[in-house]
Amino acid sequence: MTRPTPSPTLHIDWTRCQARGACLELLPDLLHPDEDGYPLPAAPARQRTNIPLRAAQLPAAQDAVALCPRLALTLRREK
Amino acid sequence: MTLTTPLPSVAPSPAMPARLFAAGPHADATLHAARFGPLPATTGLVATLRDSGLTGRGGGAFPVAAKIDALTGPPATIIGNGSEGEPLSRKDATLLHHAPHLVIDGLLLLAAALNPKARLVIVARPDGVDSVRHALRERADGRDIEVRVAEDRFVSGEATAVVAGLAGAPALPKDHPLHLTQRGVGRRPTLLFNVETLAHVALIGRYGAGWFRSLGTPEDPGTRLLSINGDGIGEHVLEVPGGTRIIDALTAVGANPDAVQAVLVGGFHGRWVPARHLTRSLTPRPAPDADGAPVGAGVILAIGVETCGLTVTGSILEYLAAESAGQCGPCVLGLPRLATRYAEHASGQEVDASRVWQLIETLPGRGACHHPDGTAALARSALTVFTAELDRHRAGTCCEGPHR
Ligand code: SF4
Ligand code: SF4
């Protein structure tokens, strides 16, 4: 039986994020700055804390996870 | 905020059922046992709960059986949540005052069915805590149940906030990549139910799924408690069948629907329903295109024809902005900004609607809890429903009071 591979998501811990912007530079098509510099995911409202990623975005997302100075980002695979 | 106000009475309205308060007001252990008998057996409890269709009464309306199914192990902690952060919500305190033994029964039944060794906790506002402690002294089987006072903040009733509070931290929402049923108190599987949900569990355990479904609708089986407040109608807690029409809930507490201009359904994170739609039914979940009004945790606020809904909403938005738990940037900065821009627009000063609407669109989904989402939804609802008032404010006339 083949199960669909769950699409990875980028999780933002909003209690940690302090708008340092590293993720915005690495993922310009996924995240835009709001008027205070906090990431505003292009995803619909329901998916703005667990943002679905396309395969091509995965390497940049991994970099963002590693470089976020506030450790606010995690990659998740389960659905 | 309303901790010292007396609790509403629960004298049954002739038009409405009395299940949760069937043992009468102030049901002590004797009255409770006389009406409901001893605790039932727990064989098949989860299957019965599934058949009953019972959903959580804390606002999310998540199916109780699905939450139990999501557990990744026996629940190490089971929590009855009566934190009731909404200032206008009195149903949990009222339930704990008049029918505490049903809530305790529900908690004990779940423990017996899922993990007899689980840590059991009831969290409530101070008056609810007094009621539960008193009830626990009347019976021998609840000695291990811990009773905790909830913090008096709007967001402290949120599930992850309650769990944080139990760990000795401030009762604030936490980032939760995993659900509590996977990782809650002590990072172990945790079940949290609203206290009213537990009271329904106690009844379903005794009388079964068919009995539960004999009231309400297929979408919203059983009964639910409402906290009804408003201009000239005082404070009431009312039990109604699922799917009850707003107008019937209002008349059951003696309100005159003709004197009502609009009703805020679902509390401060709820939606406005104008007077012409009072025949709409209360629904368990939001259904954007349907003709329903999502009931949330059951708070209903009616405003009279003399009151301006835009202005009322402005005060609620200010309150909600101040209740942001100060943790998540987009919420901490965005909610006060929303309150300000809303006020500028609603008062007619700022004609460009895009400044407030842009915030309403971008706030949701960016917080550790749903406070930004609910606050934006309230603003959206007010600006959508009170368009005539908006026009009047722009034309420089106030729609409230003697200026009418
Ligand atoms: S890199 Fe981290 S702290 Fe900076 S904006 Fe992104 S999530 Fe926030
Ligand atoms: S979203 Fe707002 S209310 Fe919720 S935890 Fe974050 S700061 Fe607090």
UniProtKB/TrEMBL annotation, chain A:
Domain of life the protein comes from: Bacteria
Keywords on record: Plasmid
Listed name of the protein: Ferredoxin
Organism annotation: Cnuibacter physcomitrellae
Organism placement in taxonomy: Bacteria, Bacillati, Actinomycetota, Actinomycetes, Micrococcales
UniProtKB/TrEMBL annotation, chain B:
Domain NADH-ubiquinone oxidoreductase 51kDa subunit FMN-binding: 50-202
Keyword line: 4Fe-4S, Iron, Iron-sulfur, Metal-binding, Plasmid
Residues annotated as domain NADH-ubiquinone oxidoreductase 51kDa subunit iron-sulphur binding: 314-393
Keyword Iron: yes
GO molecular-function terms, A-Z: 4 iron, 4 sulfur cluster binding; metal ion binding
Keyword Iron-sulfur attached: yes
Domain of life from the UniProt record: Bacteria
Family designation: Belongs to the complex I 51 kDa subunit family.
Name by which UniProt lists this protein: Uncharacterized protein
Organism, as annotated: Cnuibacter physcomitrellae
